[in-house]
């Protein structure tokens, strides 16, 4: 991918202004988020112990974070014992250097990649390209994004901002074997991608992945996916390099029983994702390298309120319920982590010195839907309010923050405020008058739902 | 200071004084399912896989019927050094499994005897998996407890699928387009 988030102009309000004017984007996003949300609610409803699983998931992650040094060392020992090699990277530059050297040592100039947000975060593809190494994305959506010289816009369905005819155009333009008789039928497009990638999978000697989980006790890495491109990359090449954030640890093998229930149901709304691969060290004759990535994570860990963002398992449930994300789209957040989680994680990882990063804690209506949906119970509104206090910001936003802080201090008050808003929803104008019109010109006033999210949740999810 | 020492030092400084967290495990770790085979078959079928339930005595005939004229890979004796060519041209692969999970309709391969390598169950377009009734457990916790983490593990829930084009589910982007499961009772 030659495109990069670095240097993306503006701030969240400016970016979202552009996005709300793009009706295709808003249509796709609305359809996607509502579809996944509905599926999720139904499979979550199947598990009577969902709240207990959520409490366990939260506690396991917090426990791990509080003893992260011990578990990292245990993981290193287990991976090494199983024939793998562990590398440590303080920041993006160091991680990129390690991976580049590992690839160079194989003599290869092409690598295949499994969808991984950590490698997007450190802009590994660009770093490899600077050394003459081409990295090929193999997830269908990532492939569409890469061939379209574009940015991902959703954690789970990164190309959701594209429609089928745009995808056909991209394939026609960028895939050598594709001819103009290719239709824009999804199965035909998927088949074109299958042909395009198959030979590459069978030929590639080096693969790069991330991981959803690492188990300290056993040294096992876990990758969840749907298409099988992950399995292709993880099993066929001779050398496998996994770049994983240090927060992805779980202490024990048993802990997977919690997260393999929480993640698929929260993310795609399925009882289980089609494929999950687990491997421990060098497996079936492969050469295995694990690069443990800090890149700002220890700074997040040092913040007592903000560290809960490190519990995130990247399921994207918070995106799908967020009224701001639904209208603004993923690109407006200017980082690989969009939506509510991006609004708290990105400014913590990168600091708030840029205009964009300082604007992210304000990219929320503080409605609390993200917190309710989060399978590891990250209190995103709490972190947003905390970050707002720390951000350099304008007087108006300072005032808004005070009100939000006052409401959020007391959950009863929040519930009341939401219910009060529900009652007056018919009276809310589409556009605010006077000096505030600048605000509504760049934002749609979110429709106030007929029922507050809390009420809906009580009714639907606690059953 | 090495990167390793520096990251560990940063972690220790960041969490100094952070209290311990107790892990509440009040979720279900065992559950009663009356008809394990029935639930497993129903959930596998939900993924648009093909499912058959047959008594052990009828297994061989059922397998013959499923396979028809296909050229199959039979795991034991496969030689990785031979490259991937034969893998890519075979019509399918037939395997056993380690565990089946009723609640999620998942089969888990630990690539032990009769289960081939990870590549053998991936590259061919058709996968026929034979599951014995006594390998089926109720839920994910029971499966995790049965599995050996030192082995490579592949969890399979339905055939390969993508929803990346306007959220339309399309089967078989890279993995087998057809998953057929025969449960022998
Ligand atoms: S913050 Fe929670 S809901 Fe959002 S992606 Fe992370 S784990 Fe999922």
Automatic annotation (TrEMBL), chain A:
Q: Which Pfam families did the record assign?
A: Fer4_8, LUD_dom, LutB_C
Q: Which InterPro entries match?
A: 4Fe4S_Fe-S-bd (IPR017896), 4Fe4S_Fe_S_CS (IPR017900), FTHF_cligase-like_sf (IPR024185), Helical_ferredxn (IPR009051), LUD_dom (IPR003741), LutB/LldF (IPR004452), LutB_C (IPR024569), NagB/RpiA_transferase-like (IPR037171)
**Domain 4Fe-4S ferredoxin-type per the UniProt entry, residue ranges:** 309-378
Keywords, ordered alphabetically: 4Fe-4S, Electron transport, Iron, Iron-sulfur, Metal-binding, Repeat, Transport
Identify a single GO molecular function assigned to this protein. Answer: 4 iron, 4 sulfur cluster binding
- Which residue numbers delimit the Lactate utilization protein B C-terminal domain? 389-460
Query: Looking at the keywords, is RNA-binding present?
Result: no
Instruction: Give me any GO biological process, just one.
Output: lactate metabolic process
Tell me the ranges covered by the LUD domain, including all copies. Answer: 74-292
What PANTHER family would the database entry show?
LACTATE UTILIZATION PROTEIN B
This protein is called what? Predicted L-lactate dehydrogenase, Iron-sulfur cluster-binding subunit YkgF
From TrEMBL, chain B:
Q: Name one Pfam family in it.
A: LUD_dom
Q: Which residues form the LUD domain?
A: 86-183
Which Gene3D superfamilies does the UniProt record give? Answer: NagB/RpiA/CoA transferase-like
What InterPro entries would the database entry show?
FTHF_cligase-like_sf, LUD_dom, NagB/RpiA_transferase-like
User: Please, which domain of life does this record's source organism belong to?
Assistant: Bacteria
The molecule here is called LUD domain-containing protein
Q: What is the lineage of its organism?
A: Bacteria, Bacillati, Actinomycetota, Actinomycetes, Streptosporangiales
């Amino acid at each position: 991918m030659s495109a990069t988030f670095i240097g993306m102009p503006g701030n969240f309000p400016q970016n979202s202004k552009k996005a709300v004017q793009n009706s295709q984007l808003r249509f796709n996003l609305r359809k996607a988020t509502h579809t996944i949300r509905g599926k999720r609610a139904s499979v979550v409803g199947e598990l009577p112990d969902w709240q207990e699983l959520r409490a366990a998931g939260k506690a396991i992650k917090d426990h791990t974070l509080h003893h992260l040094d011990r578990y990292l060392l245990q993981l290193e020992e287990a991976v090494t014992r199983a024939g793998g090699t562990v590398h440590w990277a303080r920041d993006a530059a160091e991680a990129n250097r390690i991976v580049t050297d590992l690839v160079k040592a194989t003599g290869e100039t092409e690598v295949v990649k499994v969808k991984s947000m950590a490698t997007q975060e450190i802009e590994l593809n660009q770093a490899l390209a600077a050394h003459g190494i081409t990295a090929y994305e193999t997830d269908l959506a990532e492939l569409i994004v890469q061939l379209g010289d574009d940015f991902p816009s959703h954690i789970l369905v990164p190309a959701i901002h594209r429609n089928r005819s745009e995808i056909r155009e991209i394939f026609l333009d960028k895939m050598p074997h594709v001819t103009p008789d290719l239709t824009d039928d999804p199965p035909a497009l998927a088949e074109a991608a299958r042909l395009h990638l198959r030979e590459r999978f069978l030929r590639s000697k080096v693969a790069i992945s991330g991981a959803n989980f690492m188990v300290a006790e056993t040294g096992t890495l876990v990758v969840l996916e749907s298409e099988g491109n992950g399995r292709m990359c993880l099993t066929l090449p001779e050398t496998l390099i996994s770049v994983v954030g240090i927060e992805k640890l779980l202490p024990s093998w048993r802990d997977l029983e919690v997260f393999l229930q929480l993640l698929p149901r929260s993310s795609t709304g399925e009882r289980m994702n089609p494929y999950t691969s687990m491997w421990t060290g060098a497996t079936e004759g492969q050469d295995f390298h694990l690069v443990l990535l800090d890149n700002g994570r220890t700074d997040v860990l040092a913040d007592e309120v903000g560290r809960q963002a490190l519990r995130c398992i990247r399921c994207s449930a918070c995106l799908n319920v967020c009224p701001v994300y639904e209208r603004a789209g993923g690109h407006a957040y200017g980082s690989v982590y969009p939506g509510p989680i991006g609004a708290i994680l990105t400014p913590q990882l990168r600091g708030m010195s840029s205009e964009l990063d300082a604007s992210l804690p304000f990219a929320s209506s503080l409605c609390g839907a993200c917190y309710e949906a989060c399978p590891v119970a990250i209190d995103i509104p709490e972190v947003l309010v905390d970050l707002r206090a720390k951000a350099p910001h304008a007087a108006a936003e300072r005032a808004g923050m005070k009100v939000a802080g006052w409401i959020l201090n007391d959950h009863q008050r929040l519930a009341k405020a939401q219910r009060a808003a529900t009652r007056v929803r018919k009276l809310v104008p589409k556009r605010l008058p006077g000096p505030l019109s600048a605000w509504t010109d760049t934002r749609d006033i979110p429709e106030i739902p007929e029922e507050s999210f809390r009420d809906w949740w009580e009714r639907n999810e606690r059953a | 200071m090495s990167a390793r020492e520096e990251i560990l030092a940063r972690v220790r400084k960041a969490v100094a004084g952070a209290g311990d967290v107790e892990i509440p495990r009040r979720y279900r770790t065992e559950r009663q399912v009356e008809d394990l085979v029935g639930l497993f078959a129903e959930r596998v079928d939900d993924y648009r896989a093909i499912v058959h339930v047959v008594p052990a005595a009828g297994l061989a005939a059922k397998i013959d019927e499923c396979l028809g004229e296909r050229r199959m890979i039979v795991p034991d004796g496969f030689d990785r050094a031979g490259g991937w060519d034969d893998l890519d041209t075979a019509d399918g692969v037939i395997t056993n499994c380690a565990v089946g999970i009723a609640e999620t309709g998942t089969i888990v391969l630990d690539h032990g005897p009769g289960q081939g390598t990870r590549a053998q169950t991936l590259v061919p377009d058709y996968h026929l998996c034979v599951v014995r009734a006594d390998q089926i457990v109720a839920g994910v916790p029971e499966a995790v407890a049965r599995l050996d983490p030192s082995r490579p593990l592949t969890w399979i829930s339905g055939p390969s699928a993508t929803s990346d084009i306007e959220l339309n589910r399309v089967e078989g982007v890279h993995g087998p387009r057809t998953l057929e499961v025969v449960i022998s009772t």
